[in-house]
Amino acid sequence: MSIPSLPGSSVARIQDFFLFLGENDKLLTWTREFILAILIVVLFWGLSRLLRYLFTKWLPRIARFTHTNLDDRVLLRVIPPIELLTITTGLYLAVNSFPIHERAKLIITGVVFIVCVLIFVNIAYRMADEFLTWYAFRVEERTGTRIGTQIFPLIRKVVTIVLFCAALIVVLRHFGYDALSLLAALGLGSLAIGLAAKDTLANMISGFTLMIDRPFRIGDRIQLASGKTGDVVDIGLRSTKLKTVDNALLIIPNSELCNSTVLNMAFPNTQSSGRISIGVAYGSDVDKVKKLLIEIALENPEVLKEPSPEAFFLSFGESALNMVLVFWVTDYTKIIKVTDQINIQLVTAFTNNDILIPYPTRKVLLEREG
Q1: What is the average pLDDT across 32-44?
Q2: Does domain 215-264 have CATH number 3.20.20.80?
Q3: What span, in angstroms and rounded, lies between the C-alpha atoms of 28 and 231?
Q4: Helix (H, G, I), strand (E, B), or coil: what is residue 301?
Q5: Do 357 and 280 form a contact (C-beta atoms < 8 A)?
Q6: Are 172 and 165 in contact (CB under 8 A)?
Q7: Residue 199 forms beta bridges with which residues?
């Protein structure tokens, strides 16, 4: 195959062009660096496509051999930012090798570097978020609690703050700023804020402790040291909200809850006991009264047969024999209702069996002088 000959004028122009390039080293260097920058961008673009292929085709096949779906979820979340990070890294290297003014290069590379750091932080946050979501679901499934809506939102915020601070330090070090002095300033500022808001911080730390230690959960009924009782509606960072039995909202600082005795009526289960104290007249058949108390309790469908209700003769009162009935129900919310039903039945049963419930009486003797 013969090579077509070029016209003489074309050959002369090409020779003149190469002579011009040889005489002008600066232009030749610029051309080489420009071509190198283009090649770097194309190379990293191809590398991003290769990574996308590996992450979507091959790594999911390897992830199938694991016992959890965590790796599959992480891969789906990190593929787009990893691809973008690869292209941005190539752009950063290309700008570094591109023959432009140093000040313009410094500005452009600085912007691209910040973008790379932000993308990397986004990748780290997505991985942490997927892990926390997966772990919270496993804990909730194993314990039957709502820990995912109580603790893990706070952990996500802490992770976000840590990643942001790390990214800020990296960016400052890249531009030649002393990150240690910034950390010292932040430390002094944090100390001043801590002294000014020590009560708020104490409540926040106590709230975090309540979420970790979990002495009670949302929906549990608790009794405070002051005697107030309510259902837990919300466990926040600063305070815990209780809904009392009379439908009022009680807001308690978390530090007070951590430093006081709390009775959890819903733990280890919702079974709860009820007590009915009653006095019968002197001369009554105590055994008959105790038997009647137990029979009335067993007739109520809400009262548990096991543990069975029990009746006790507690003490001799001023005008009555003091008796008490102890019974158990499946749910503490039914105590008041069941107590009311048993009291009504006891009044009828005592009347039918001639058992008197005496009024408090006093006998006064008057002596006449002389």
Answers
A1: 81
A2: no
A3: 80
A4: coil
A5: yes
A6: no
A7: none
Which residues partner with 222 through β-bridges?
230, 264
Q: CATH 3.30.70.100 spans which residues of the chain?
A: 272-352
Q: Which residue has the tokens 């410094």?
A: 106
* 130, 74 contact by CB (below 8 A): yes
Instruction: From the options 3.40.30.10, 3.40.50.720, 1.20.1600.10, 3.30.70.100, give the CATH code of 272-352.
Output: 3.30.70.100
| Least confident range of 9-18, 174-183, 277-286, 290-299 | 9-18
pLDDT of residue 3: 43
Residues of CATH 2.30.30.60 domain(s) within the chain? 215-264
What is the number of other CB atoms lying within 10 angstroms of the CB of residue 106?
12
Model pLDDT for residues 313-330, shown as the tens digit of each residue: 999 988 899 999 999 998
Q: Which residues pair with 275 in a beta bridge?
A: 326
Following DSSP, what letter does each residue of 139-190 receive, concatenated? Answer: HHHHH-S-GGGTTHHHHHHHHHHHHHHHHHHHHHHHTT--HHHHHHHHHHHH
The identity of residue 179, as a single letter, is: A
pLDDT tens per residue, range 64-102: 666 777 777 777 788 888 888 888 888 888 877 776 777
**Ramachandran bin of 15, using left for φ above 0, alpha for ψ from -120 to 50, beta for the remaining angles:** alpha
For residue 278, the SS3 value is: strand
